Amino acid sequence: MPTRAASTWWRASRRWPRRRSSRTCARTRAGTCCCSRTCPRAGPAGRCTRRRGRRGCRWGRGSRCSRPTSRCRPRGRRTSRTLQSKFKANCRRRRRKLEEKGRVTVERVEGGLDLEAKLEEGFALEASGWKGRRGTAMAQDARTRGFYSELARSAGYAGRLALYYMRLDGRAVAFQYALEYGGRYFLLKPGYDETLGDCSPGQLLMEDVLRDCMSRGLREFDFLGPDMVWKRDWTDKVRRHTWLYVFNDTALGRAMCAAKFRWAPVAREVVAKWKR
What we know:
This protein has nine helices and nine strands. It is an alpha+beta fold. Residues 12-31 and 74-78 have low confidence and may be disordered.
């Protein structure tokens, strides 16, 4: 699946017209250049592009970033051994505090007739927090909402959807929208009730989800997105990613590739020396 997706992305980069797309891709000058961010350095997109490069396609890598991942330990070995003692103690204290407020349960949804209602519940919970105030919640944009709704339906049909809810007396207080593929858990969208911030329901749900991933034999938990402090509470391992640029084999494409990966670095070096 990742290899097919990489090949499809490469073919689309050669065809698509002049426009600016989503946050993951940007194109310039009638398809002369296409770039995709957060590609694993050793991933299928890079391998596919290198093969095309040997046939005349110009390409290069840009800015680097790190994406936290956590290895799910085999059954019988506790993931908590890798966590700091203070963090584990805080989780236990916050769980007791949340349980004092009512009955705490965790629900996993993989699809079914009530999927739409469950999604609405998760969308509303995510929009109730800081994402809603910034206008970046899934429910606040019709296209984004439609994309994640359709993705959930398709993934549920394929057996790859994983929606988790932590409930307090039946009310959702934490939420995870994720996909599972190839023994990996991909966390797309988390959310939690910020009125219970002193109990950290999002972190407590994370603990329960990690435990469930291990019990079901998954081998990796991928946090996706940028490196953030709360993710490093759970892991110290990261996967290196880069921007991947692909240029058409035209005079303009070759000039743009040379400007970005040869001339621009030399110019920056000259300016840095001049400033010193």
